[in-house]
Write a structure and sequence with these properties.
The chain has helices at residues 22-28, 48-60, 87-90, 100-107, 126-134, 166-176, 192-203, 235-248, 263-272, 310-317, 337-343, 373-385, 396-401, 405-410, and strands at 3-7, 12-17, 39-42, 63-67, 72-76, 84-85, 109-113, 138-142, 145-149, 158-160, 182-186, 207-209, 215-219, 227-230, 250-255, 274-278, 282-287, 297-298, 323-327, 347-351, 354-358, 367-369, 389-393, 415-419. The protein is 30% helix and 26% strand. The protein is α/β, with parallel strands linked by helices and 422 residues long. The strands form six sheets. Strands 22-23-1-24 form a four-stranded mixed sheet. The chain has a four-stranded mixed sheet with strand order 2-15-17-16. It is elongated, with a radius of gyration of 21 Å. 51% of the residues are buried. Helix 10 (310-317) links the parallel strand 18 (297-298) and strand 19. It binds ligand EPZ. The site of ligand EPZ has 22 residues, from helix 1, helix 5, helix 6 and helix 12.
Length: 422
Amino acid sequence: MDSILVRGGGELNGEIPIAGAKNACLTLMPATLLSDEPLTLTNAPRLSDIRTMTTLLESLGAEVSKLQDGQVIALSSHNIHNHVADYDIVRKMRASILVLGPMLAREGHAVVSLPGGCAIGARPVDLHLKALEAMGAELDLRDGYVHAKAPGGLKGGMVDFPLVSVGATENALMAATLAKGTTVIKNAAREPEIVDLARCLRKMGAQIEGEGTSTLTIQGVDKLHGATHPVVTDRIELGTYMLAPAITGGEVECLGGRMELVAAFAEKLDQAGIDVTETERGLKVRRRNGRVTAVNVTTEPFPGFPTDLQAQMMALLCTAQGSSVLEEKIFENRFMHAPELMRMGARIDVHGGHATVHGVERLRGAPVMATDLRASVSLILAGLAAEGETLVNRVYHLDRGYERVEEKLGAVGARIERVSGQ
Ligand code: EPZ
């Protein structure tokens, strides 16, 4: 297993290109199942999760080819011959559940393994299933699989989510595009990845209104055609790299970044003493003074502070002047980076969904272990500012969501290298 070695100290200066969004691409790729015509995605990120989704779609009979070093993905589902999404693939990546809605909508039946939980929480899919039942799906849960049928096709229905769910909104939205009649989705997720999916589906001929708001209205159509669509910029990779100069000092321009993708996050950075300036090429970030100021953070669905940036923000606040309280309201177990940061000298008290961080002057490098995707990159950020060397183990988590992290950070002056495991 590979590790990443970071030698701390020194400011970062220069430019970091931000890739297309992993969490947009993982819902745009299954959209190919809605049509027998080709779907081409450009600005696609080169990540292991994308390779996993590719394997899953190919196992169903879709053709997926990567062009331009993986930045273009050409998909075609004119010949779906297998309707079972196997546990072996699904267990590797929970987003696999996103083949359920489109496959059921177009093929009238689907068998998808329940994804199971992960390090950050139980990750149930009950809201996905309730949404499809509201569109007339007949679901039977047995042997760890969802057996879904829609004899005669799905019908438009009323979906009212008791809590905001990104994935359930995506499954319901994709399924509704081919349902007979009108579907209204209330308390829908408003993430930019949902907006991106709606725009792509509209290019394929779907009739959708309200993306970006809490209510989506979809008029089902008989058939969707092919399309070409650029994957939206990854706001979580963007926020992650905005924190690099924030934690080390210096000035970095994140190319492709747009303020509307990270407004709540940028507001918090401003309160902590970090300047974020929109340029015509992206977002320029620099620390105003020598040390950041403690701020309190509560994670919420978009447009609130993203849960996927909580671990990275904690790394910054470990070196802030004063104490910060981070409240994680989306997932039940998303502070696993805290004990690892404490190995580096951070002072953090975790109680349930709250973590209180008492800022220290400097962290000290140490061997640490990545436990999930965003925790792993928060340890790298901490290592950039720490005294001495930090060795982050189990970086396969990292490669799921960050392409070429050592190249991107190395290019702005970080002393970082990948150490191949035995
Ligand atoms: C998406 O996960 C993202 N993944 C996550 O990013 C992100 O953290 C999350 O949205 C929240 O923004 C992808 O897009 C592939 P949810 P998702 O359904 O859709 C509960 C990363 O690091 N819930 O919005 O699974 C759930 O337990 C990953 O890139 C139910 O109770 O998240 C959670 O507490 C991590 N029943 C809350 O809702 C359901 O049926 C929000 O989950 C579904 C969800």
